[in-house]
Amino acid sequence: MQKQKADGAVFGNPDIMNVQRLGEKALSTIADALVQSIADVLRSIPDRDQLSRAEVAGLLNARGMVTGAGYNWTAERVTATSRKARLLLSEEAPAPIKALPTYGPL
Asked: How far is residue 1's CA from residue 9's CA, in Å, rounded to a whole number?
């Protein structure tokens, strides 16, 4: 290896920083799409706030959805992603008080 280095051989990826950023962006895009998909499933359920993690996992598995790594959902695997999906749904819903016609300055 020392001889190869002396001969000018390059080991590793000289563009590793750029490649890592591209990989992070790709994984982030996949994760965001998964959160959106789970939010779409939860959006269709009127009493979604009453669902346990195991019930959410069951719903996702019944619809043939898998994790980003291709596994079936479990209560443990669904925790962080469903939390993000529920947060997304709560941000979509207008705050009840702001929806009142008398909200704001008179």
From this structure: 9
